[in-house]
Write a structure and sequence with these properties.
Layout lengths: L8 H30 L15 H5 L12 H18 L2 H26 L4 H18 L3
Helix pairs in contact: 1-3, 1-5, 3-4, 4-5
């Protein structure tokens, strides 16, 4: 059993569920991004309009800003890191990693909104989920 926070089993499950949901959401966005590169007519589930589009955002110039690594890979790595740190029982590291992930997601979303005029639903989730995980772990650091 994963022991994220020894004092609260319920919080452990919330963090695990959020991390798994975030990983699945990020994996789908990464799939949609790669599918769109092969097929221009592809519309992902997260593509609401031309302005609210995760595949359009994923194919923008802000797709990979850290050493050329796609943002989807960074986000998926973050969720794996949360589960791994939770297994080891380090809520403080989960908290700080979550703050960093939410800040990075906020930066990417602000660049997409202001420079590309795109609102990315997936990017929004990659701010909300790490912020929620940080909130849940804050009381236990």
């Amino acid at each position: 059993m994963l022991i994220f926070i020894r004092e609260s089993v319920v919080v452990n499950y919330y963090i695990l569920i959020l991390a798994l949901f975030g990983f699945v959401e990020t994996a789908y966005t990464f799939y949609a991004e790669n599918r769109r590169k092969r097929d221009e007519s592809f519309r992902g589930l997260c593509d609401i309009t031309d302005t609210f589009s995760c595949t359009r955002a994923a194919n923008s110039r802000w797709e990979s800003v850290i050493f050329g690594i796609p943002n989807g890979v960074l986000a998926a790595s973050y969720y794996v890191l949360v589960v791994f740190l939770g297994y080891l029982g380090y809520p403080a590291l989960i908290f700080y990693a979550s703050i960093g992930a939410a800040a990075f997601g906020s930066f990417i979303l602000s660049m997409l909104v202001t420079r590309e005029k795109i609102w990315c639903t997936s990017c929004t989730m990659n701010i909300v989920i790490p912020a929620s995980i940080a909130y849940l772990t804050y009381a236990f650091i």
